[in-house]
Amino acid sequence: MSLVAPPSRVQRARRLEVVTVGWNAVEAGVALVSGLFAGSVALTGFGLDSATEVASALIVLSKLQAALAGRDPNEGRERRALRALAATFFALAAYLTADGIRSLVTASRPDTSPAGIAISAAALVVMPVLAYAKQVTGRRIGGPLGALVLVDAAETRLCALLAATTLGGLLAYSVAGWWWADPVAGFIVVGFALQEGWEAWHSGLCCK
Q1: Which residues contact residue 80 at a Cβ distance below 8 angstroms, ignoring those fewer than 6 apart?
Q2: DSSP code of 110?
Q3: Which of 25, 27, 112, 166 is deepest in the core (most CB within 10 A)?
Q4: 1-23, pLDDT tens digit by residue?
Q5: CB 6 within 8 A of CB 67
Q6: Where are the domains of the chain?
Q7: CATH for 7-206?
Q8: pTM given for the model
């Protein structure tokens, strides 16, 4: 992928991807730990999804770095990585579906998770800002490389929607005591995971 945009714009896109990797790593750690301790289907799924998003952002970052260095990325390796990433999303969807059904059947009640509420609320602020910055940068870069950044911006917006769903489920239980809201939110996470898995399997990230 040759570099036709000003390097400063590509560097900005690279910095945004570094922030994305760092934030999602923190988000995944907090959500996973608090979700497992609280027994929350939605929060655990949110954490697992954030972990897979780290891998996706790393693929985009590698392509940006290759463009800045003036070399072509390893398309075959990236395609294999994306297929493995898609399989991870599908496995996540299967796990959350089974766990959500179990929670509904047994009327399992998760514990309230202040940390989970805090991290999903923070993500609801951070991710839209990142998505907007990526969208502006991608349009300024233009060409195939800009299109790649725009694809990633759409993924970041999807993460913001996922954070809103998770936060809604956590608050519904914490405030109103609706125990079933957690597995229902988990099923919504399943929908996001399936969509992201499908997009990763057929993704333009290795074809742009």
Answers
A1: none
A2: P
A3: 166
A4: 445 567 888 899 999 999 999 99
A5: no
A6: 7-206
A7: 1.20.1510
A8: 0.76
